[in-house]
Amino acid sequence: SVEKVFSSKEVPPWQKQLTLRAFVVSFVLGVLFTFIVMKLNLTTGIIPSLNVSAGLLGFFFVKTWTKLLEKSGMLRQPFTRQENTVIQTCVVASSGIAFSGGFGNYLFGMSEVVAKQSTEANNAQNIKNPTLGWMIGFLFVVSFLGLFSVVPLRKIMIIDFKLIYPSGTATAHLINSFHTPQGAKLAKKQVRALGKFFSFS
């Protein structure tokens, strides 16, 4: 098991997992993935699971960053798999809001501009011009609804029923394998393949 490689390594405290470089990379990848999600949402209406690609690109960027710092002798903290998980979580959460927030379908479908294109039910009751303040409030409700529903669902589905989630499990195995000597080489190959995929989509 890949986990045996990390059995002797101590898990860093949460303060060392939430680093500035993790948030910088998360922000850049979050913006990139949000554009990809919006394009897919407006053209096909569905999006693939982005967990694996977010974990992979997060590893690639921070590993490159830390290697450059290591060569210059300025590396203070090594890149950990926990930090990689923080990046992947932030990227998937931010790009997920673009999809579940309805920016590609119902959020702007309520507006007066879209309503004028239809002859059915075109009245004040069926029109809502979303303002910035209203959209921020709406996104908070959408985001926190998921957060509050996760706590009871975690107990039932993960602890009691011990269900394995394919996307999350695959991402965890992938992030673990990246942080092994052989995994770093594999990650470079996968980044090239991912670049080709995004250039075609």
From TrEMBL:
Stretches that traverse the bilayer: 20-40, 46-65, 86-108, 132-153
Domain of life of the native organism: Eukaryota
Cellular component aspect of the GO annotation: membrane
Keywords assigned by UniProt, alphabetized: Membrane, Transmembrane, Transmembrane helix, Transport
InterPro entries named in the record: OPT (IPR004813), YSL-like (IPR045035)
UniProt-annotated location(s): Membrane
Membrane topology value: Multi-pass membrane protein
GO function terms (MF aspect): oligopeptide transmembrane transporter activity
Family recorded in the similarity comment: Belongs to the YSL (TC 2.A.67.2) family.
Name under which the protein is recorded: Probable metal-nicotianamine transporter YSL7
